[in-house]
Design goal:
The complex is a heterodimer of chains A (138) and B (136).
Chain A (H helix, E strand, L loop, with lengths): L2 H19 L7 H8 L3 H12 L3 H19 L4 H7 L5 H12 L3 H4 L10 H7 L13
Chain B lengths: L6 E5 L3 H11 L3 E7 L4 E6 L7 E5 L8 H12 L6 E5 L3 H10 L3 E9 L2 E7 L5 E7 L2
Parallel strand pairs in B: 1-4, 5-8
Antiparallel strand pairs in B: 2-3, 3-4, 6-7, 7-8
Classes of the chains: A mainly alpha (138), B alpha/beta (136).
């Protein structure tokens, strides 16, 4: 462990923060690598080594978390929510949501109301887990 | 049984850099900055609020093996060490603007919440801090 690793961690954290903040935007590897100031080839590998999952899966879990919130807290349509959180098609959304959460968006909707705690706390703890049953994404 | 919480702690990787950030950018004030030789007791607080201080501690020293200190630094820079606090303000949006001009790295823009308006930022090391304007 040295300054180089700490510096790398911090860059990866910056990219991860960008996914937490701008999850609805089309954040691809080139965009994230620019935020982290590393090469595209380097980015995905380093991100996975740092946080234990690919940037793609991290972004999917963030989007699914937002979808879970909107399904619970609003009565907007599933299609509406799908695009709102950054998915490009309803098929991808439903498949990803079910793989990560274990139920379809519609089934999930029967859940309870959202808790009132600081959002950074909700963001971390309400995130769907890295279910071992979920198919690998890359 | 108890009267108050007076001190809590956050790990920082460099205390001089921490001073630049917490005092120079965030506008907190130094509560204590005492060099004990082996350690530097460095605290910051909100100006005019001496009853609550945050200790800015460097991982390491004789109380922690170098291997453990490395693990702590690893977790801090991954944003996983967990030390954080909320600063309250009367005007979250204006505070956000001021700090943005000073180059503070925000993770979240000011946003309306059920409890008020708040935003999130990180210190240079990876620790997270929130700024909340609580609904009256």
């Amino acid at each position: 462990m040295n300054r180089a690793v700490e510096d790398s961690n911090r860059r990866m954290l910056r990219a991860r923060d960008a996914m937490d903040r701008a999850y609805a935007q089309p954040l691809d590897v080139p965009a994230l690598a620019r935020i982290a100031h590393v090469s595209e080839a380097h980015f995905s590998r380093t991100f996975r080594a740092t946080f234990g999952e690919s940037p793609h899966r991290y972004l999917q879990r963030r989007r699914v978390e937002r979808a879970m919130f909107l399904l619970r807290a609003t009565d907007r349509s599933v299609t509406d929510i799908c695009f709102e959180v950054g998915f490009g098609s309803l098929g991808t959304f439903s498949r990803t949501f079910s793989a990560i959460v274990g139920t379809s968006p519609r089934e999930f909707r029967r859940e309870a109301a959202a808790p009132v705690v600081p959002t950074c706390f909700t963001m971390a703890w309400a995130r769907p887990s890295r279910a071992p049953s979920a198919p690998a994404d890359d | 049984m108890f009267n108050a919480i007076t001190h809590s702690q956050m790990f920082v990787l460099d205390q001089d850099e921490a001073l630049d950030f917490y005092v120079g950018k965030l506008g907190l004030e130094v509560g204590a900055d005492i060099d004990f030789g082996a350690m530097r007791w460095l605290t910051v607080r909100v100006p005019g609020q001496p009853e609550r201080e945050i200790l800015l501690e460097r991982p390491g020293g004789p109380g922690m093996s170098e291997e453990t200190a490395e693990q702590v630094r690893d977790l801090v820079t991954k944003g996983a060490i967990g030390g954080w606090f909320i600063l309250t303000t009367d005007d979250c949006r204006r505070t956000h603007e001021t700090l943005l001009e000073r180059g503070v790295e925000f993770t979240e823009e000011p946003t309306e919440r059920p409890y008020g308006i708040d935003c999130g930022l990180r210190d240079p090391f990876g620790n997270r801090i929130r700024i909340t304007q609580v609904t009256a």
